[in-house]
Design brief:
Number of helices: 24
CATH superfamily of the largest domain: P-loop containing nucleotide triphosphate hydrolases
Helix content: 40-55%
Distance between the termini: 113 Å
CATH topology of the largest domain: Rossmann fold
Structural class: alpha/beta
CATH architecture of the largest domain: 3-Layer(aba) Sandwich
Number of domains: 2
Low-confidence stretches: 1-16, 229-234, 325-349, 530-539
Strand content: 5-15%
Strand order of the largest sheet: 1-8-2-7-6-3-5-4
CATH class of the largest domain: Alpha Beta
Radius of gyration: 26 Å
């Protein structure tokens, strides 16, 4: 495979007018698609599916949430159904993904689209956090589709648990993340083991140099789908801002932003390590601001449940941990990508990368990422599907680093250097600039003493206890109650992850903002250029307003003791 001759690339004409019925799909698959209420194919689906059904290799660049998963699942399932016949079962397709969360997302959609042919097209995941023996037993049944990370799939191929002789389709989903997560050596070995006749799907949000190398190693004269038209509206709707601030003032500004509602709608907050996610959560709890955390410490079921409920608008604020390997990232963008060890991969940093968060109005980089590529993946969570969005990044100047030890993080030392790279990268990608988001610090400083009181309560012991308490709660919910929730799904819907941990001393007076602290012009007076994006209706519920108005119109009966008049 590695010695394949590179053939000329082809481009596909974009046609988003087709419906799923026009693809000539199996009736069972069409019925499953209708059940999912997929009315019309997205741009990447309408372009990729016809070409894939012709047997072409597909290299598609489209943003997360654009329907890339269905764009490869539908033709793969259709091909398996068309080749349906009796005899010995075997694995026909392998889907490679960078993380367990993405594996679960893929398995879930495959299961939905094979609901009416599940006996013919069976699926197994080797990315689950189960023992080798359990995974081996799953593969012993020779499922038609296997989903897993490159390292796990390769391990089972070497162990003889997964045969590639009958393999017909290979999918590399989120290919840019597969390379950035350090799977280069695994992918090279898989390329040598896979037959050259296998149809390849290479799906990615960006076509980096590393993705180009995968294309050369795996694909034969592929159809290259550069779906810029799919991104034009979203790119125009994304507003990017930066705030140069001290390490402690990150917490002060976060309080002002969320307590006074400067940002409307759902927000993803990114920090660079697990400890900071809990420190920020406990800090916001002091002011009655509810949030839930998403990090690699939590069980996989919890992470997926948090994502699902966030998409259902149950939570408005999620603090996600995007853990970075500082040593590997130090000069990754100035030189060739560093090889990462298996130990680094197993940390599963960047748990939010590639996950399909929906209707995000703002991405707040509480901690600036360590690479321009990571920044692109973070801000790609907002301004999608024609919606407006905002990316706000806190940047610590070099001369301010280390002045507040408790509020500091090691990655902030390189903030200015990374910001310069981000600005160059955004100009190169889409001719976009990052504008300053100017707070009126004279007004903001009125809230400083309250933040200092709250921050002092969030001690290292409180953070440690919060991590232990939440992990214990989530393990209980994920493992011991799993069967109970399967039998009582309504109770699972009621399970929340943004409950107050109360690991820090709670100061109830901080939950209310006194009127004397507010500027005369209201919360908007705190910023000089307001860039918030409001996705929620500001006027409130229509029915409640009508009831309140009707209640106000009711004539009150007069008090006879006050209205009684005596005739003289």
């Amino acid at each position: 495979m590695a010695g394949k001759r590179k053939k000329p690339e082809t481009s596909a004409a974009v046609d988003d007018t087709k419906g799923f019925d026009s693809f000539g799909l199996d009736a069972r698959l069409v019925q499953a698609i209708k059940r999912q209420q997929f009315e019309r194919p997205t741009l990447v689906q309408s372009t990729a599916i016809p070409l894939a059904l012709e047997g072409k290799d597909i290299v598609a660049r489209a943003k997360t949430g654009s329907g890339k998963t269905a764009a490869y699942v539908i033709p793969v399932v259709e091909a398996i159904l068309r080749a349906e016949k009796g005899g010995e079962r075997s694995t026909k397709a392998i889907v490679l993904v960078p993380t367990r969360e993405l594996a679960e997302q893929a398995v879930k959609l495959i299961s939905k689209l094979t609901a009416y042919c599940s006996k013919v097209v069976r699926t197994a995941s080797v990315a689950q956090n189960v023992s080798e023996q359990v995974q081996q037993s799953l593969l012993a049944e020779r499922p038609e589709i296997v989903v897993g990370t490159p390292s796990r799939v390769l391990a089972h191929v070497k162990a003889g648990n997964l045969g590639l002789r009958e393999l017909r389709h290979l999918v590399i989903d989120e290919a840019d993340l597969v390379t950035s997560y350090g799977y280069e050596e695994d992918m090279a070995q898989i390329a040598k083991a896979v037959s050259s006749t296998v149809q390849v799907f290479l799906m990615s949000a960006t076509l980096t140099d590393e993705v180009e190398q995968l294309k050369t190693a795996f694909c034969r004269n592929p159809a290259i789908l550069r779906l810029e038209e799919d991104e034009v509206d979203a790119e125009a709707q994304l507003k990017q801002y930066t705030v140069r601030t001290t390490e402690f003032d990150k917490f002060l500004l976060a309080y002002v932003i969320f307590k006074l509602g400067l940002i409307k709608g759902k927000t993803l907050v990114f920090v660079n390590d697990v400890e900071r996610s809990y420190r920020l959560k406990l800090f916001l709890e002091q002011f009655g601001i509810r949030s839930c955390v998403l990090n690699s410490d939590l069980p996989l079921n919890t992470r997926l449940h948090v994502m699902e409920q966030f998409n259902k608008n149950i939570y408005n604020l999620v603090i996600a941990t995007d853990e970075a390997d500082e040593q590997a990232d130090e000069d990754a963008e100035d030189a060739a990508p560093a090889k990462r060890t298996k130990r680094t991969r197993e940390r599963e940093y960047g748990v939010a990368r590639g996950i399909d968060f929906q209707h995000v109005s703002c991405v707040l980089n509480f901690d600036l990422p360590t690479t321009a590529r990571a920044y692109t993946h973070r801000v790609g969570r907002t301004a999608r599907a024609g919606n407006a969005g905002m990316a706000l990044s806190f940047v610590v100047p070099r001369d301010e680093f280390g002045k507040h030890k408790v509020a500091s993080t090691a990655t902030a030392k390189r903030d200015e250097k990374v910001l310069a790279r981000i600005e160059r990268d955004q100009l190169k990608r889409a001719d976009r600039t990052l504008e300053p988001y100017l707070f009126d610090m004279g007004q903001v400083n009125a809230f400083r003493y309250r933040c200092e009181d709250a921050f002092r309560a969030v001690t290292a012991v409180a953070v440690r206890d919060a991590r232990y308490k939440e992990l214990k709660q989530e393990l209980l919910s994920s493992e011991k109650l799993k069967r109970h929730f399967e039998e009582n799904p309504d109770e699972l819907d009621a399970l929340r992850h943004d409950n107050e941990l109360h690991a820090a001393k709670v100061q109830h007076h901080l939950k209310h903002v006194p009127d004397y602290l507010m500027p005369k012009s209201g919360s908007t007076g705190l910023v000089k250029n307001l860039g918030h994006v409001g996705l929620h209706k500001a006027q409130g519920n229509r029915i409640r307003r009508a009831r309140a108005a009707a209640k106000g119109r009711k004539r009150r009966t007069a008090d006879p003791l006050k209205s009684f008049k005596v005739r003289k």
